[in-house]
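Anyone up for a design puzzle?
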């Protein structure tokens, strides 16, 4: 049987390019529905007609941290997550139509691994709603998936700011006694600090590496960057000494560990150590939004990057870029081989740029 698997990550589908009032949505990060539909078409026709094709979406598929619909901007209940998913499906109907069509064929499969931006998929009703929309055959994995010497995980679990336990994904709210998502520090930060600022600076959470941006900003945009840093320290202190002991506990982390977590190389180091100490021949992560591959004596680490824009501060590659990267796992060789690829799609004369 001829087979391939495609792995993508960090698509960050939001509630659509425009709000219901026709205003540009500053919180949308995904603009490549058409290209994605073409990717599925390509790998299910021509040479690939009749192949077993599995699409694995490795975390942060959906942006289920839409603070703009929340009463207090921070507590997410199951009905909140349902509303967020409904908005996403409405805002990206071509995408979901294509997924559903792809799943009509029994030799096609979709697997989803939960990431830190779509922790809400762990709610029962949210999982059901997504499966109803795509296919009841679709699988949702709460942390990782492995097969044929390949290990796939989003990667947020190795990052102290974004790790959460799939077992304790929800908790009782101290204030209202409702069951709410038990989100990690990073999600808290995204919703209360980054989200309100995206109205003015939509690319704020697309900047990589953040450490370089802080240094760059202090030099070239001193007052604004200094102000933002003071606000960040204030945000940390406010939560570190919060009246709710659970919030306090979440913020019981040292500056050292925060800086360590912002380092992009640490996830690659984790991958290399998995390759060295286990039987896995291929490790695939996402999360960092930086596509990369490392060859280690015939074993491979691939990071599938993101389909959202990156504002790169790297001295070797500065500027704003979007690369539609994915991993292709090829079963025509034994053992299976994985490669990092970039999807160009059909040639387009023009397209609208993200803000
Ligand atoms: Mn992500």
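Challenge accepted. My sequence:
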């Amino acid at each position: 049987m001829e087979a391939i698997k495609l792995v993508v990550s960090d698509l960050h589908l939001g509630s659509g390019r425009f709000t219901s009032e026709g205003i540009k949505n500053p919180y949308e990060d995904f603009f490549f529905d058409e290209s994605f539909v073409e990717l599925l078409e390509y790998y299910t026709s021509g040479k690939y007609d009749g192949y077993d094709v599995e699409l694995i979406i490795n975390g942060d598929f959906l942006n289920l941290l839409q603070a703009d619909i929340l009463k207090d901007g921070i507590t997410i209940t199951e009905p909140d997550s349902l509303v967020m998913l409904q908005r996403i499906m409405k805002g990206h109907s071509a995408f979901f139509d294509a997924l559903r069509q792809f799943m009509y064929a029994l030799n096609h499969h979709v697997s989803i691994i939960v990431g830190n931006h779509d922790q809400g998929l762990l709610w029962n009703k949210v999982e059901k709603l997504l499966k109803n929309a795509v296919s009841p055959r679709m699988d949702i994995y709460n942390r990782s998936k492995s097969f044929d010497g390949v290990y796939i995980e989003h990667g947020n679990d190795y990052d102290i700011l974004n790790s959460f336990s799939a077992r304790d994904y929800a908790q009782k709210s101290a204030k209202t006694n409702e069951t709410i998502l038990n989100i990690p520090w990073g999600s808290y930060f995204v919703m209360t600090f980054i989200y309100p600022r995206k109205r003015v600076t939509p690319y704020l959470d697309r900047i990589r590496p953040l450490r370089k941006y802080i240094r760059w900003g202090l030099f070239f945009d001193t007052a604004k960057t200094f102000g933002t840093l003071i606000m960040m320290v204030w945000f940390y202190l406010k939560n570190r000494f919060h009246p709710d002991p659970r919030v306090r506990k979440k913020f019981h982390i040292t500056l050292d560990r925060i800086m360590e977590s912002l380092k992009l190389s640490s996830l690659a180091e984790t991958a290399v150590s998995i390759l060295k100490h286990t039987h896995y021949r291929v490790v695939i992560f996402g999360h960092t939004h930086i596509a990369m591959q490392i060859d280690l004596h015939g074993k491979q680490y691939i990071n599938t990057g993101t389909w959202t824009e990156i504002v790169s501060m790297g001295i070797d590659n500065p500027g704003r870029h979007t690369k539609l990267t994915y991993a292709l796992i090829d079963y025509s060789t034994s053992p299976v081989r994985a490669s990092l690829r970039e999807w160009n799609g059909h040639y387009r004369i023009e397209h609208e740029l993200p803000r």
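A detail worth pointing out: Residues 222-240 form the longest helix (19 residues).
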